[in-house]
Amino acid sequence: MFENSPCGYITLGVNGRIARVNKTLLEWIGRSADEMIGKRFSDFLNMAGRIFYETHIAPLLRMQGFFNEFAIDMMAAGGEPMQMICNALEGRDDAGKPLFTRLALLKATDRRRYEQELLAAREAAKNSLANERETSELREQFIAVLGHDLRNPLASISAGARILGRDAKTEKEHQVVAMLQTTVTRMAELIDNVLDFARGRLGGGITLDRNARKPLEPVLHQVIDELRLSSPGRQIEAEYAIDTPVDCDRTRIGQLVSNLVGNALSHGTASQPVRVRAETEDGLFKLSVANGGEPIPQAAMERLFEPFFRGEVRASRQGLGLGLHIASQIAKAHEGVLTVTSTPEETRFTFVMPLR
To answer: For a surface tag, which of 3, 71, 136, 192 has the fewest beta carbons within 10 Å of its beta carbon?
Structure first.
């Protein structure tokens, strides 16, 4: 992930060892992915940095789930230290169990230059509003940086809600905590869509972590349950007939389903259920999301999967207009296709990908 990002990224597994590292960081320190995967992050720090990380950063990260900006020296392949500015965020499941740690790094010497270049680009765009391409490039760079910076306060809100949830006693207190967590989930989805769009436009594209060994159905269950919680009063029917392993990125498929069902909840009539079906058949994995309501106008059908395109939606479900675009890109990354049909009876999105 983040192959062409201006930042270096490292993903640590729950065992503290490096699971992923992007091309940007590898080029900075002159190392290969094979050289780093499976090692501890501290193995690539100087002695002072190793002590600082293991005794100060790692314990606080486990305690609060994030660490906003610290400086640390990484050792390049040639043995010279390279000072980095680092942000750390711990990914956790709904129960608060750690899943991974994401480290975002920027060379200290590049930080000020990068900020100045970004500010200069913003000023240039303000003075050249007629230049649509320049404005678009600025927007994409800005939302990439903004989306990354939003994760830290969001993690803090989520951690605070979990702490409040443990002490909640009345039904009203539990409802407030549930509302906070639902809002965090919604914001996380928006940030994911923004970053995926930015990465795609900046050349990285959507990358996958495919795994046919783990079942897909539990992920679909979780996504549907979260959407039911965030849309009280709306009915979502789900039917699964997955009897063959699906070689896919389960998190990405969950994101695709969340975007499609969210779209159905926004545009479908509230008096009819949203219907989700996932099945394996004839060497294919098929997933469909259908809703009742007014058919999509033909003019909108032609632009439906374009970024930042939005139809008329209720105020409570306003978004960025990226959900269907990201869903189509996830389908493409899986060597599949996402299509839509819309009649007075129903609107149906269908994702089909080959089984491996």
So the answer is: 71
pLDDT in tens, 176-216: 887 787 777 767 766 776 666 665 655 556 778 898 899 99
At 332-342, the pLDDT tens digits run 999 999 999 99
Angle in degrees, CA 150, 164, 222, rounded to 5: 65
Q: Cα dist. 196→110, 240, 255 in Å? A: 24, 28, 11
pTM for this predicted structure: 0.49
Burial (Cβ within 10 Å: 0-12, 13-18, ≥19) of residue 71: exposed
Name the percent of the chain in helix, strand, coil, to the closest 5: 45, 25, 30
Cα gap 49→231, rounded to integer Å = 47
Cβ 278 vs Cβ 241: under 8 Å: yes
Band of residue 315 on the pLDDT scale cut at 50, 70, 90 = very low
337 closest CA partner among 305, 315, 311:
305
What's the rounded Cα separation, in Å, for the pair 52 and 56? Answer: 5
Q: Encoding tokens for residue 221?
A: 């269950």
Adjacent-strand bridge partners of 81 = 75
Q: What is the largest CA-CA distance in the chain?
A: 68
